[in-house]
Amino acid sequence: MAETVQTHLCGWMVLQRGDGTVLLARRSGVRYGEGLWGLPGGHAGLRESWAAAAVRETNEEGGVRVEPADVVPLGVQRYVDGGYAGVDAFFLARRWQGEPAPVSECSEVAWVDPAQLPADALAWLGPSLHRLLRQGIWLDEQL
Fold it and tell me: Where do the domains of the chain lie?
């Protein structure tokens, strides 16, 4: 019989400028990844889609508004990270309104080359962005 675990369902937004850089936010005041760079995003509510969660969190954390029609599914990955297990859904947006700025649950934002992430980024972020953006691998179930 398979072991059951509480599964986190998260939606993450990859905001990408024309030069290929992506928006990262330094996590602050959160239980997971405190002080580390990550994508805007987080847990989907009980009746909220992954895309809606990514759009909402991008506004709440990075201060920019993304229209749902401008969001493209990018990929899905399953993970086990310490005491956490879940499924991450990634979305790509190349259009948004507003200028990125830290709002809540982050202390700063920056445009970063996804191939040259800061050393203090979430450990899974670099490999995930590489698979999604450079290799075009949309499904990753490796634990």
Answer: 8-138
| 19: CB partners within 8 A, 6+ apart | none
Give strand ranges (E) for 6-142: 8-15, 22-27, 37-38, 41-43, 72-81, 84-93, 106-112, 139-140
Residue type, 106: C
Under 8 Å CB-to-CB from 93, ≥6 apart: which residues? 13, 14, 15, 16, 58, 66, 70, 71, 72
Residue-wise pLDDT for 86-137, tens only, equals 899 999 999 999 999 999 999 999 999 999 999 999 999 999 999 999 999 9
Token match 């330094």: residue? 26
What number does CATH give the domain 8-138? 3.90.79.10
CA neighbor of 76 nearest in space, from 105, 95, 51, 57 = 51
Alpha helices per DSSP H over the chain: 50-62, 125-129
Rounded Cα gap, residues 116 and 2, in angstroms: 38
Question: Whole-prediction pTM value?
Answer: 0.92
How is residue 92 written in tokens? 């790509």
